[in-house]
Amino acid sequence: MKPFVLLATRAEDQPADEEYALFLRYTGLTEDELIRVRLEAGPMPALLLEDLSGIFVGGGPFNASDPAERKSTVQHRVEAEFAALLRDVVHRDFPFLGACYGVGTVGTYLGALIDRTHSEPISVVPVTLTDEGAADPLLAGLPHTFGAFVGHKEAITTLPPTATLLASSPTCPVQMFRVRRNVYATQFHPELDVDGITTRIHAYAEHGYFAADELDLTLAAVRSAAVSHPSRILRTFVERYAR
């Protein structure tokens, strides 16, 4: 089997390592089958799509909607690298699944309106499939509405007609979309479980996702409902595209 690649941007080792472990667990891939590239540590290597089965993107600290002058040199580099990669990915309709930061990268490439109108605190939200989502093979077997972990400062407000809306939540209209047939992005985190999001809550407690006195409330929010369905998306992606 040709390997998959996980493009990651987390600078903190513990949540970065746990993110990789979660992708391994829920995709069912081995470390040889899922190659991790930490983009915050260095430039994106040349990715020959013909040598890969597919590409995953994890979450991260970058906000596409931040003013250019507030973005770090690393963020500017990563954004330019994703723009170049996505030109090839979308043109070839290559299997791609971006989780959370996938919305920022693919959304920016499409020219979607990304701002802070539909940000969501770290929590569990009900995600509901559109008719197109219910018919999409990547989402086969998922219930019409399911709980998912979220936590994001920005989101897509206006999705261009070149994309197909697959899922929404009450406070965020674009939770998942598809470009062409094989390029996907989610706002929610399909890779997370309770332990994983607990690690991130502690790691990013001072990153503006919640107030300093809201740590316990935030931990309680992610334990408020069972989350079991989104991770199936990762396994289905591998089953569809492994070659």
From TrEMBL:
Q: Show where the Glutamine amidotransferase domain sits.
A: 49-192
Which GO cellular component terms are attached? cytosol
Which Pfam families does this UniProt record tie to the protein? Answer: GATase (PF00117)
Under PROSITE patterns, the record lists: GATASE_TYPE_1 (PS51273)
Know the name of this protein? GMP synthase (Glutamine-hydrolysing)
Q: Which organism is it from?
A: Microbacterium pygmaeum
